[in-house]
User: What shape does this take?
Amino acid sequence: MAKLTFLGAAGTVTGSKYLVEAGGKKLLVDCGLFQGEKELRLRNWAPLPIAPATIDWAVLTHAHIDHTGYLPRLVSGGFRGPIYADPATCELARVLLPDSAHIQEEDAEHAEHKGYSKHSPVLPLYTVEEAQEALTRLREIPRSDPFRISPEFSVRGYDAGHILGSSSLELTITENGRTVTVVFSGDIGRFDQPILNNPHTPPRADYLLCESTYGDRDHPGGSVLDQLAGVVNRVAKRGGSLVIPGFAVGRIQTLLYLLRQLEIAGRIPRLPTYVDSPMAITATDLYMEHREDHNAEFARIERETGDPLDLHDVHMTRSVEESKQINRIASCVILSASGMATGGRVLHHLEQRLPDARNAVLLVGFQAAGTRGRSLADGAKTLHMFGTDVPVRAEIVEMHQLSAHAGQSELLRWLDGFEAPPKLTWLVHGEPPGLNALAGLVRQRDQWRAEIARYGQTVDLQ
Ligand SMILES: [Zn+2]
Assistant: This one.
């Protein structure tokens, strides 16, 4: 009988890893890193409960590190199989995994330097070289056609609308002439957003694993375009600049799209706009190249008026030298990573622009506790960076509508897409409030059964 084990994203939002066993073969669905609290991060260091060498294949829902960031450990631990993902996910992983390794190496060096750790030398969780080694195992599978992994497993992706290449996976397991279908929702995105297609629910599932990140709440309403136009116009009128710390994959491309819409409609002046993050520039290229992910409106705009992410006066600054030149521009828009101002080039722009009241900083994503982004959102009067306290006189604006995760009613809309209730739904990838709320709502549906997945739990799929 086929079995499923929850090796991550059970009771929490990171570390997505699900092991499926059938016919003596083992398939790992997602291979994410645990992030956040120390207790969770320590799990990345502990050996997997299953020897990586005994796993035959891995398949990915999307490229985010909490779904892929454990791959280098899996490979260094002995995994020798192929890692299957759609073309865009493979390409994004080639950008994100080495970056994740680079951060691990920097953290280790920092700990060594500060003497945080009892161990010396302090080793990184994995190195850039190990990340590169893991990437050699990537194999492209079709974006939306069924793909047979083995006689036991066949997988098919459905657009999840979360980031480029993101999929919900329908896994068909065949064992002793019987088949069972398990749907892994992956991270479900938003409906009616720029660029990507709406999340598409697979038609049927015997068993379902559904993410619950926002299972307990909806995102705030209100027009993103109005709010964005408001802040750009205020800044332009003051002769200042707008700094937007953004996540390199997804958020920055959405902002480029929205700013171009506002420019074309004549709702904002044509300010010079800088995309100052090598990763965001590469991601922007990938967003344009992967047409299979574009929604109809994006395709129409591209056909009729050209590149929908190309503003009138946009500059992609890859080199440090080009990045420094931006300091000389009095009035402009700067999109730069990281999204919570924990590091990256955006820090230099904040240092330069925060002390001037003509400028504004637009916070467009979730700002975790303890980050500079959160300090700004909480009204800090100074911000510590590069060893000094930088005075905060710029206008600080928060915009919460641009989340890449479905809110509660969007999760329910996605669940509505099933032709019949699955035999059982496990709620995964959520904190307890989101998991409990969504479990309650699923149980209220006619003939639906729901359970909250537990870390390390193994269940039968019959
Ligand atoms: Zn994600």
Summary: Residues 337 and 345 are 6 Å apart (CA to CA). The mean pLDDT is 95.
